[in-house]
Amino acid sequence: MKARLPQGMGSGPQNMQSMLRQAQKMQESIEAKKAELEEKEYTITSGGGMVEITVTGRHEVKAVNINPEVVDPEDVEMLEDMLVAALNEAMRQIDEESERELEKVTGGLNIPGL
C-alpha cells in the first residue's frame, strides 16, 4: 500500500522552488518592516511629564526636553533618574514593537538573528 501525500506535497523541484520563493518574499517583507521600524520615532515622558525624550527605532536619541521646574541644582539625582527611566522605557517600547511587528511578518516563526 502506498502512502499518499497531501496535494502539493512531495512534488519535487516545483515544490522546492515555491518554498524558496516564499522564503525570499518573507525575507523582503522582514527587511521592509525593519526599515520602517527604524524610521519610527517614539516620544516618552517620565516624572509626570517633566522629562520628555524622542528616540528613533534605531535606538538613537533625537531630543531631550526638560521642564525647567525639575531643574534643581540641589537634586540632580532626581533629574538623572527621570532621564534613565525615560530612556529605558523608550528602548523597551522599541524592542517590544519590533518583536510584535516582525512576528506578524514571519507568522510566528522563530528565525535566528531577528
| Count of alpha/pi helices | 2
Distance from N terminus to C terminus (CA atoms, Å) equals 44 Å
Major beta sheet summary: 3 strands, antiparallel
Order of helices and strands: HEEEH
Query: Taking all residues together, what is the mean pLDDT?
Result: 86
Residue fraction in strands: 15-25%
What's the total number of strands? 3
Overall spatial form? rod-shaped
Spans of at least 5 consecutive residues with low confidence: none
Percentage of residues in helical conformation: 40-55%
Secondary structural class: alpha+beta
Query: Gyration radius, to the nearest Å?
Result: 23 Å
> Biggest sheet: strands side by side, in what order?
1-2-3
Quaternary arrangement of the chains shown?
Answer: single chain
Task: Describe the protein.
The chain has 114 residues and is an alpha+beta fold. It is built from two helices and three strands. The chain has a three-stranded antiparallel sheet. The relative contact order is 0.13.
